[in-house]
Amino acid sequence: MLKSSFVSLGIPCDITVNEPSIDSINIILGGHLIQNISALKSFRYIPYQLEQLNAIQGFYTQNFHDYLSCAVTVWDYSHQNISFLDSKGIKARYVPIGYHRNLEQISQDHEKEYDVLFYGSTGPRRNTILQKLIEEGVKVKTLFGVYGPERDREIAKSKIIINIHQYDTKIFETVRISYLLNNSCFAVSENSPLNPYSGLDIPLVPYEELVQTCSMYLQKVIAREKIRLRCYRQFREKYDMTEILRKALQNNTPTD
Prior knowledge:
By secondary structure, the chain is an alpha/beta fold. The protein folds into 2 domains: 2-98 and 240-252; 102-238, Rossmann fold. Helices cover 37% and strands 15% of the residues. It has helices at residues 2-8, 62-69, 79-87, 124-135, 148-156, 174-182, 210-219, 221-238, 241-252, and strands at residues 25-28, 44-49, 74-76, 92-94, 114-119, 140-143, 158-163, 187-190, 204-205. It has a 5-stranded parallel beta sheet with strand order 6-5-7-8-9, sandwiched between helices. It has a 4-stranded parallel beta sheet with strand order 1-2-3-4, covered by helices on one side. Helix 1 (2-8) crosses helix 9 (241-252) and helix 4 crosses helix 7. The protein starts with a helix and ends with a helix.
């Protein structure tokens, strides 16, 4: 998505793994996995921070703090994360995850084998909802450690993709939901204190109403289809990733 959006802006962009460029500004994903921060001291970089940050439940260490502190600037997908980083002395810019046509990877022509799909790591909060769905007679599919085309095929075979927060902080899982919106998939999500996608008709409900809401939409095929298509159009029109990056670069482009 990032490469496609940079190219759409006419900006040359390469993708590398653990090979930063001394001559370029490096947009780093997965920076929380970097152990030796000193290895980056000769490079200019912008972390695109996509982890849920919280001193208790989320991910934040002194090593990660040092990594962010040495960056040209920091991008983050969550207003809640940005507030948390500000409390740690890190100024971050809000860069939400948006739409790009090159991310349309999931066919909607597959026969639907599953009622509800959940993918990602599970824990007590998530397992409780999934088990209740199963007890209601809902055909539930769960995936963990499955990525790329294989996961796309499973998404395509699902009537509803459910999003349940892992932590009590209830930060919206923007990375997951944005990909589903980009691919015109129907998702039901637990709501959050801050909705990063205002103006979209995503079914957002309290934790206690997730089972009921999924059961309702399983019975309303036409309503699911209308919402799926409407959310896709809204996302494409309101959250174009190329324009999001253009604004981020206009405000954050460092000077030599």
